[in-house]
Specification:
This protein has about 80 residues and is mainly alpha-helical. It is about 35% helix and about 0% strand. The chain has a domain of about 45 residues. The N and C termini lie far apart (about 45 Å).
Amino acid sequence: MSTPTHNPKADPAPDTNTVKDPADWTTGDEPMTGAQASYLKTLTEQANAPEQFSEDLSKAEASQRIDGLREQLGM
């Protein structure tokens, strides 16, 4: 019988650094990704907040806006 191994995908340790504040990202000042732009556009439409979308956001700024809109929308 083999010993079960820990699966970090199914049971991540609560004190890991897998979630970082966007302000601490080393690539946070790079332009937002296409996926971020698409998702942010969708969220701004759902929230009726088109002013939250801008083509020139950084990855970190886009992430923060996405988080805020998700919270606003109860997601």
